[in-house]
Amino acid sequence: MTKKILVTGAGGYIGTQLVRDLLSQGYLVTAVDRYFFGKEPIKEFIQNNKVQVIKKDIRDLQVEDLKNHDTVFDLACLSNDPAGEIDPQLTYQINRDGRIHVAKTAKQAGVSQYIISSSCSVYGKGTEKYLNENSTTNPVSVYAKSTYEAEQANLDLADDNFSVTALRNATVFGLSTRMRFDLVVNLMTLTAFQTGKIIVMGGGNQWRPLVHISDVSRAFISLLSLSSRRINSEVFNIGLDNFQIKNLAYMVREELQLPIDINVAPDDADKRDYNVSFEKAKNIINFEAKFSVKQGIKEIYSALKSGSVDTGPKTVTVKWYRHILEAKKLLDEVILNDRVI
Q1: Does residue 111 sit in helix, strand or coil?
Q2: Where does 93-161 show beta strands of DSSP type E?
Q3: What CA–CA distances, in Å, run from 122 to 72, 100, 274, 287, 309?
């Protein structure tokens, strides 16, 4: 019998790739999202008879929505550290409370497997050379704190009938139909292409773990075929390797083979600096990332040259969230007796 998978955040940067890959492997998919960024990113599979599209806030999901699903991949959140700071209360409501609600509702609905998309940003300002899943966490942003609290609360729900796994993804790069140009490799490639310059913030010595979007999707899907005994109540760091920010800029310049100026700014409000180990995922779930940073840079550059990738306001998460919130505020001010005009 074909497994039925529910994906929250299905219209997002990773979610669109994950839905596509699930369909290509024959799974039935329920794609849940508020679709803040529109349904354009999912147009290729919106008419697919193996997909059910639900436009719904995760905080409003009910048992009926999750019944008859084998697995829930919970990706929905206000993503990335700057976006989480726009409205901290809302970030906690969605990233923590919303995902706790999804997990509890999934358990009530009889779903047997739940996987939460967590983040290596929970390590924040790292205190060890290679941070593993047992290392002390030190989240420094609302996004990271709310993500960690959701991860831990949902792991506590695990039992013999409800398998819970957390994947702490490294900083993601690569092309997506819901493209993001607020992620370090993607952003550097875009600015190099558009302006011939790359600005490296904070001196560039800080470390970041990285992973290609297709590898993240593959990590999630790999859990579908594993025994719950191996992955229940477990946390896995998912990534390729660790890189210093300034070295990424030189990699971009090398791949584009253009005269690009690299300017290093001495300070940055973002204090994250962490170097992460991916050995546990390799040893226990046999996962190793395949796509290199250079491959990611090359595919983004090719898409930019051909004009086949969106570079508009929707590709910078923090700007788009701020636009939505400001638009709602303006609309609330002009509505009178439920009339806009």
Answers
A1: coil
A2: 113-119
A3: 22, 17, 10, 21, 30
Structure tokens at 104: 């509890």
Q: How many Å apart are CA 110 and CA 235, to the nearest integer?
A: 22
- Residue 306's CB is within 10 A of a number of other CB atoms, namely 8
Please, what are the domains in the chain? 4-321 (3.40.50.720)
Instruction: Supply φ then ψ for residue 200, to 5 degrees.
Output: -100, 115
Q: Provide the token pair at 332.
A: 């609330």
* Closest residue by Cα to residue 182 from 323, 41, 301, 79: 79
Residues belonging to the chain: 341
Question: Which is nearest to 189 in space by CA: 272, 265, 295, 264?
Answer: 295
How far is CA 9 from each of CA 30, 116, 248, 266, 310, rounded to the nearest angstrom? 11, 11, 28, 36, 19
The pTM (predicted TM-score) of the whole model is 0.92
195-208 burial, b at 16+ Cβ within 10 Å, e below that, comes to eeebebbbebebbb
Taking each helix axis from N to C terminus, what angle separates 293-306 and 245-256, rounded to the nearest 10 degrees? 50
Q: Estimate the crossing angle of helix 142-155 against helix 99-108, to 10 degrees.
A: 20
Q: Is the pLDDT of residue 40 over 80?
A: yes
Instruction: Give the tens place of pLDDT for each residue, 93-111.
Output: 999 999 999 999 999 999 9
Number of C-beta neighbours around residue 111 at 10 A: 24
For 104, residues 6+ apart whose C-beta sits below 8 A from its C-beta are 157
CA–CA dist 100, 94 (Å, integer):
9
